[in-house]
Amino acid sequence: MTTSRLEHDFLGEREIPADVYYGIQTLRALENFHITGIPLRVEPLFVQALAYVKKAAALANRDLGVLKPEIADAIARACDRVAAGEFDGQFLTDMIQGGAGTSVNMNANEVIANVALELMGHQKGEYQFCHPNNHVNCSQSTNDAYPTAFRIALSNKLVGYSQVLGELADAFAAKGEEFRNVLKMGRTQLQDAVPMSMGDEFKAFATNLREELLRIEDSRRLISEINMGATAIGTGVNAPQGYADLVTQYLRDITGLDLSLAGDLIEATYDTGAYVQLSGVLKRTAVKLSKICNDLRLLSSGPRCGINEINLPPLQPGSSIMPGKVNPVVPEVVNQTAFYVIGADLTVTMAAEGGQLQLNVMEPVISFALFTSISYMTNACRTLREKCVLGITANKEHAENLVRNSIGIVTQLNPVLGYETSADIAREALKTGKSVHDIAVTERQLLTQAKWDEIFTFENLIRPSFVQ
Question: Is 397 exposed, middle or buried (0-12, 13-18, 19+ CB in 10 A)?
């Protein structure tokens, strides 16, 4: 058996391992691009989306008489197998590459062509029967096939991310219900403010994250506009009349996504604004998630010399030198993930700005940044939920004692005693260490114990009503 086959392109001939499904242009990419070390196969949804695009193109070309039915049908069947993940290991080009994604597109064209050849009873490399460019890439360019597949993959990847983010928000909401009767001190600028329910604090975390689910859906709508049929720059060169609408319809049917054809294909071929929008949403969520993790770390600080209102699940020893120390490692790792995503947003911004004229050649780094950010955010949300939030407990008695001993509760006396008197009580309490209660009720007798009890009920502390 031969161990290689000979393939050629306009640069010359190369030997390709006989058992692989990729061809000469993929081989050149493997030789040229050693950047991330992360191959295309690590994003199976992208491989799947490329197969969807090639299948839709083959079927549209068949219907319009551009491809012979037997070739188009073989390509479509090959695409089904690629989409199912059977050939993920053949997609080896580096995620970051020059050429605006041409290497990714040709990797897909070559694999699909060789799978189709085998289905037709031919050998790999017998491209006279099914050619990567002439047949699999028929009526296409990298400049419409790549971004269309990218958008389909992004949309599908966001579905999983949204689900995990929603589950995290639900976990915070459940903790909010669990802690609804826990009184604690609210804080502004790291100083005691006014009392609140710990349940409301955790429900607010849930609300904060649920807002992001709406923004993700907005972004999915933006990336559902595709430029298939634009070919090289948006003029539709080499594509038959009616192809753009027909291939878009096939893609809707194949993917189940509400895809739409851009109204201006020239603009759509170079515009990357939807990616900037999506990246901004990911950054916004990362910022919110990191802030929540900062709060969890502060609220659990101590255990003896910090706030210590909540306990995070102990996962591992926290020090190689300090016995018994346990660190908030999950919030810390989520913080770091958020920092990465925030940085990746700048990458997307610069890459979007870096395009020239009729094409943005920087789309591979945009795809790498967005795919990576979505994956990392998905993992971070899942980890935070499973390893941290579900196991949080409240130190109810300690939290309530902090409230009772706080000077911040003097705010509740404003409507009864006035701001100046309340401020004077606060000043004396801070100076002497006495409680607000002892100064206002016992020493100065400014209000009765009954009035104090009316003002400082649990419900009135967390849902203040105007008491005179």
Answer: exposed
| Element spanning 132, H or E | none
429 exposure class (CB count in 10 Å sphere: 0-12, 13-18, 19+)? buried
Residue 94's DSSP bridge partners are: 39
pLDDT < 50: residue spans in the chain: none
Task: Name the amino acid, one letter, at 170.
Answer: D
Span 210-251, pLDDT tens digits? 999 999 999 999 999 999 999 999 999 999 999 999 999 999
Confidence (pLDDT) at 362: 95
> How many Å apart are CA 62 and CA 58, to the nearest integer?
6
Catalytically active residues are: 319
Residue 130's identity, in one-letter code, is C
Residue 353: which residues within 8 A CB-CB, separation 6 or more?
A: none
| Structure token digits, residue 309 | 């209102």
Q: Which residues pair with 183 in a beta bridge?
A: 197
Tokens of 387: 């390893």
Q: Are 288 and 296 in contact (CB under 8 A)?
A: no
Q: What is the pLDDT of residue 467?
A: 54
Task: Determine phi and psi for 242, rounding to 5 degrees.
Answer: 85, -5
The answer to whether 212 and 228 are in contact (CB under 8 A) is no
CA dihedral 262, 213, 150, 381 (to 10 degrees): 170
Contact status, residue 119 vs residue 188, Cβ threshold 8 Å? no
Query: In the beta sheet, which residues pair with residue 197?
Result: 183
**pLDDT attached to residue 322:** 84
